[in-house]
Structure formats: C-alpha cells, structure tokens
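ok here's 23S rRNA (Uracil-5-)-methyltransferase RumA:
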Amino acid sequence: MTHDGEGVGRVDGYTLFVPGALPGERISARVTKQKKQYGYAELDELLTASPDRLNPPCDIYEECGGCQLQHFDYEAQLTWKRQHVIDNLTRIGKLTVAGDGEDGGIVVHPTIGMENPWRYRNKAAVPIGTASASGELVGGFYERGTHRIIDMDDCLIQHDRNDEALRVVKRIARYLRVKPYDETTGEGVLRHVMVRTGFVTGEIMVVLVTNGQRLPRQPEWIESLRAELPGLKSIVQNVNERNTNVIFGDETRTLWGSDVIYDELDGIRFAISARSFYQVNPSQTIALYGKAVEYAALTGNENVIDAYCGIGTISLFLARKAGHVYGVEIVPEAIEDAKRNAALNGVENATFEAGPAEVVIPRWRKEGATADVIVVDPPRKGCDSALLETILKMQPERVVYVSCNPSTLARDLRVLEDGGYRTVEVTPVDMFPWTSHVEAVVSIHRINK
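and the structure:
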C-alpha cells in the first residue's frame, strides 16, 4: 500500500494505485487515469479478499474522506504502519534497521495502538455548505478527492460530545436561516464549525467561522447553544473573509463564556484556546509524550530545549524530570498559552520564547546556552536545515525526534547521522486509527564530539 493507504497493483508490469484495495488481494478494477509509468483505478470487484479485510462500520465511509482504512483490520494497520516507518528509514534515510532477532541497526518497536480505537478525537472541524439536491445546509467532511461536503451526523472517531455539538449547530443554523458559505461565489455567512471537547473536564468550546464580521441573530445563537449543550463553556467567532481553503482568519473573538477551555493530560492541566495546537487524541498523546520523556533519559539536572513547543505540552511533561526546559515556537499566541499553562501547573523550571526555532536556538547558542537534550516536534515538512545545523553545533548528548511524517523524519535522521549521531530506536505511535497517518518517537545519541 502507498503512504495514503491506497492499494498498489500491477497488470503486465504496469502499476496501478487502487483506493480500497489491500495487499494480497485479487481484484477487477476500472482504470480512471493513465500516465507513462503508472495509473489510477477504481475497485470494481473483489475476486480474492484479504483475511485482513473488514466491513467498515461507518455508513458514509465509501464517500467520506475522513478515514482511509476502516476496511483494514486494526492489528494489521499497526503492522503496516510500522513497516511504513521502516520503509522510509531504509529507502529515504539509507539507514539500517535491525531485523527480528538480529543485532545491529535501528530497533523499530511495534506500533503503540489503542485498546479501543474509536471515539478518540477531541476536536472536530467541518466545512458548512449547501446540499445540491435539497438546498439544505449541510456540514461534514469532503468527499474523497472533491470539495463536495458529505453531510455527517455521527462520526465514529469523534467524541460523542463533538458529534452532538455539530448536530446542534447545524439544527440552529437551519432554524435561524443562516446562509451557508459558497466557496464558488464567496457569498454566505457560515464557513466552518469547530468543536473542542475536554476529555477529562467535559468542557466544550464551539467556534463559528464566518465570512464577515456580523453573525446574524447572534443573541439567539448564544441562547440556543447554551440551552442545548450541557458542558458548554465557550462560544467563539472567527472571521475569515479570504478566498482560501484555510479554516481560520486572523480575527477571533469570544461571544460568550471563557476564552479557553481546560483539559488534562497525565495530570497536567492545559488551557486551550480556539486556535491552539493541541493533540486530538488524548490517550495516545500521553503514550507519545511518555515515550519522548523516556528517550530523553532525564535525571533531574539536564538543560532541555523543546523546539516547536506549541502550547507547552511536551515541555511540561519534560519539566517534571529536567533541570530546566527552554521552549521555542513560531506562533506568539502559542507561547502565551505555554506560559499560562506553566503557571497553571506551578512549573517554574520552564522558559518560553516566540520565534522560529532555526533563529532563536542559534541565538541562544551564541549567548552561551547549552543543551544536554534537544527535543524536536516539527510539522510535516520536518526540521528546518538551519535547526539541524544548530543541533550538530550544540552537540547535545541526546536528541528526541517526535515525527508526524516518516519521509521527512528519515531525511532529517540522515543529516544527524552524517553529523555524528546514531539513531538508536524508534517507536511508532498510532495517533489516528483508521487513517493512513502514523507518528513516531525516535531516540538519537551522540557518538562523537
């Protein structure tokens, strides 16, 4: 399968990518697009099914683009995700992976999965539009490969409270006759709805993204949402008037309640605003960050730099075992959240600064700062080359890499290996069951100075 979860088949040596097909299956498919070296096809008939094939429990799975792997046995998914990480390490990073029972090479552990891989998401963000047939307001995920919205009332990977809040918002919008946004004409009011739910606290935030400053019938919105959503703590409006697929605009204001909701991860309390980056799978986040702390191997005296620190989630996990943690993040609002979260938990051994990691950390180095451990948790594009160069110059004893993209992880590991570091072990973590995404935590040690 490809990294997107598409089956890879061959006909007389010609490669076809087939969504919905699984390894080992024989199928009949209809070619939809041809290129010189490869093509795309749709699955017409299943001739020989894989023993790992499931009947997807979601009624709209075949249309919705939210999940890619509901037809694939969960344990088999975990095995495939581990192999996907290995393939990137060997093919892109040119790294050696230890075989089962063999010495030498990087140890890639089994993927950490979920005991119950459903209802795990604490955040839902869906576009709002108009059904072409009925003209009714709809909200849900896009159909695969299109911008047609598949109306959704029940998503099996969302927390029940998220689903209920989305149903309530759509019902209120229809009752109040709020016009959905039309991305073709740029007209209409309601563009997106985002819901956040605190798994531990039960607190709910509803964010209405509007195409303009005015939210029609705002008092009725507030009254209705408060009446129908127990646990609601915050109603927020975000204004996005740009012709873009990006969900949020620059202006955010609280219409009712608090600017934030609160939640906890492993006993650490976090204030979460409308635009905060906060991992969507709480139980797996604890596993992910727990493994990062384990790989940091802290004794209580170390200086730790947390690059791409966001609202301070990993930083506060590290601060419980480090001498001092220095966090850097490019988004100023996130740094303010990080400072607030440190204060919220009485953490005094953490310092945060806003700016690009590849700019701030080199400056810290020039000012005499040292790091025993550097933790990086970059976006999908991976680490900036200037940051990797700074890591090699600072020469920490250990680097911990938290990755959401195995291909850029492998690329960056190659740079660190060529600079005198050794990749010791990797643990994939399934943060997004039933999708093709996989995260990984990597332990990297310095081998020379």
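+1. Residues 74-91 form the longest helix (18 residues).
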